[in-house]
Specification:
The strands form three sheets. Strands 2, 3, 4, 5, 6 and 7 form a six-stranded antiparallel beta sheet that branches. Strands 8-9-10-13-14-17 form a six-stranded mixed beta sheet, sandwiched between helices. The protein is built from twelve helices and 17 strands. It has three domains: 75 residues, no CATH class; 87 residues, Roll (Pdz3 Domain); 187 residues, 2-enoyl-CoA Hydratase, Chain A, domain 1. 35% of the residues lie in helices and 22% in strands. Strand 4 and strand 5 form a beta hairpin. It is globular and about 80 Å long. With 411 residues, the chain is an alpha+beta fold.
C-alpha cells in the first residue's frame, strides 16, 4: 500500500487527508474560502432540489418513488460542490448545470433541447423585435448532424442566392457542426441592420461565403408561386397563423380551380395544432386527423366541420426532409382519401415536443407524446411513403409527375 493511502474513504481520495494536514497557512486560508464556497453552493443546490421535489405533481412523477428524485438532486449537488472545491479548473456552477442538461437531453432524446434564458428570449421573440431579426430563412438538421437551409420564397436569403438544401457550415466564422437547428438559427439572428456572414456548401460540394444584412420581416408561412401551368401553395413551416394564411390563399385562388398543389418539401414541422387545423380545411366534419398518445392517455382529434375546399383535387409534395407536423398534415389528407402525395419517403418524426419555461426564464423542449395518423400505424422512424414516388429530384420532376396524374384523370 502506498504511503498516505491508509483509511481512504469511499470517494477514493487517496492521500488527500494527509496532504490537507500538511497545508501551510496561506493554503489553509484558501481552503477556508473554498469551504465557504462549497457551503454556499450546497445551500443553493439543496434549495433548488427541494423546490423541485416539492413542486413535482403525482402526474409528473408517475409511478416513481419521490425519494429517488430528492436523492438524485442531493447527489448532483454533492458532485457540483466537490468539483467547485477540488477540480483544477472548475467551471461556473451554472455552466456545469447547463452542460449536464444538454448532454443528458442529447443522449436521451434527439429532439429535446435546453435553451438558456437569452436563447429562449430570442426563440420566442415576435418578428417586430428588432433585437432578433433574421434573413427570412429556416433551418433543419439532418440525421448526420449537418444543418441545411430552407429560405423563404422571395426572402432575403433566397435573393442572396441561398438555395433550399444548401448546407450551413459557418456563421460569422464559427462552425455550426454539432449544433441543433435552434442553436444555429440563434447565431444568425441579431439586431436589424447588422451584417452576418454565412459559409455555405452547395449541392456541388463547393463552399461559398455570403454576407447579408439582418432585417425585420413579417412572419409568414404560406407562399403562392407559379410553376408553369400550376399555382403552387408553398408551406415551409407550420406556425400559429398558417390555417388563416392557407385559407386566404385558397380564397385568393381561381374559383374554378379543380386541382391544388401544396409544396411541403423541406417542411420540418412546427406548430402541431396549426397543422391539424390546416388539414381540416380540406376534410368533412368528423374525419379523423390524429391520435396523440402521452403519459396522460390518448387524445383523438377530428375535423370540426368548417372546411374551405372539399372539391378540388389535392396534390401534396414531400421529400426526405418533410417531417413531424408536416407528416401529420399529409397523413390526414392522404389516409382520408382526400389527397395524392408525390415525392420521396418522408423523414419519419412521429413524436411531439412541448416547451417548458423554467424559473430563471430558460426553457426545456421535451418530447411528450407519440403521434398516430388515422391508420393507427406510427410513421416514427419509417416515414410516409408517397403514393407517387419520384426517382428524380427537383421541381421539374414534381411538376411533371403532377401533370401526369392530372392527365390520367382527364382533368
Amino acid at each position: 500500500m502506498k504511503p498516505g493511502c491508509r483509511g481512504h474513504g469511499p470517494a477514493g481520495d487517496c492521500g488527500f487527508r494527509a496532504a490537507k494536514r500538511m497545508m501551510p497557512p496561506a493554503l489553509t486560508r484558501i481552503g477556508a474560502v473554498i469551504q465557504q464556497k462549497r457551503r454556499m453552493l450546497a445551500r443553493f443546490c439543496m434549495a433548488a432540489g427541494l423546490a423541485i421535489a416539492m413542486a413535482a405533481s403525482p402526474a409528473a412523477a408517475g409511478s416513481r418513488d419521490p425519494d429517488s428524485s430528492v436523492a438524485a438532486v442531493r447527489l448532483f449537488q454533492e458532485a457540483l460542490s466537490q468539483i467547485e472545491a477540488y477540480a483544477l479548473h472548475p467551471a461556473e456552477p451554472m455552466a456545469m448545470v447547463e452542460t449536464a442538461l444538454r448532454q443528458y437531453l442529447k443522449t436521451a432524446d434527439p429532439y429535446a433541447e435546453y435553451l438558456t434564458a437569452d436563447e429562449f428570449a430570442a426563440f420566442r421573440s415576435p418578428p417586430t423585435d428588432a433585437r432578433f431579426s433574421g434573413i427570412s430563412m429556416g433551418l433543419g438538421r439532418e440525421a448526420s448532424g449537418r444543418v441545411f437551409c430552407i429560405p423563404d420564397p422571395g426572402g432575403a436569403a433566397e435573393q442572396a442566392g441561398i438555395a433550399y438544401g444548401d448546407i450551413l457550415v459557418n456563421v460569422d466564422g464559427a462552425p455550426v457542426a454539432g449544433l441543433s437547428a435552434y442553436q444555429a438559427g440563434l447565431r444568425i439572428r441579431g439586431r436589424a441592420g447588422t451584417p452576418t456572414v454565412l459559409t455555405l456548401q452547395g449541392k456541388d460540394g463547393m463552399e461559398r461565403t455570403i454576407r447579408l444584412l439582418r432585417r425585420q420581416h413579417p412572419l409568414k408561412s404560406v407562399f403562392t408561386m407559379d410553376a408553369g401551368p400550376f399555382a403552387i401553395i408553398r408551406i415551409p413551416r407550420f406556425i400559429q397563423s398558417t390555417p388563416r394564411e392557407l385559407k386566404q390563399a385558397l380564397l385568393a385562388g381561381p374559383d374554378d380551380a379543380n386541382a391544388r398543389i401544396i409544396d411541403l418539401t423541406g417542411n420540418m414541422g412546427g406548430d402541431l395544432d396549426a397543422a391539424m387545423a390546416s388539414a381540416a380545411l380540406f376534410l368533412p366534419e368528423g374525419s379523423p386527423i390524429l391520435t396523440v398518445k402521452s403519459r396522460d392517455g390518448l387524445q383523438r382529434h377530428v375535423c370540426d366541420g368548417s372546411p374551405s375546399d372539399l372539391e378540388s383535387r389535392l396534390f401534396l409534395w414531400q421529400d426526405a426532409r418533410t417531417a413531424s407536423a408536416a407528416e401529420v398534415f399529409i397523413a390526414a389528407l392522404v389516409l382520408n382519401g382526400r389527397a395524392v402525395s408525390i415525392g420521396e419517403r418522408s423523414f419519419g418524426k412521429g413524436v411531439a415536443q412541448r416547451v417548458l419555461e423554467m424559473h430563471d426564464r430558460s426553457a426545456l423542449i421535451l418530447t411528450y407524446a407519440a403521434l398516430y395518423p388515422p391508420s393507427g400505424r406510427s410513421f416514427h422512424g419509417s416515414g410516409l411513403s408517397p403514393l407517387v414516388p419520384l426517382a428524380a429530384r427537383g421541381r421539374d420532376a414534381y411538376v411533371h409527375a403532377t401533370h401526369r396524374q392530372l392527365a390520367q384523370s382527364g382533368d
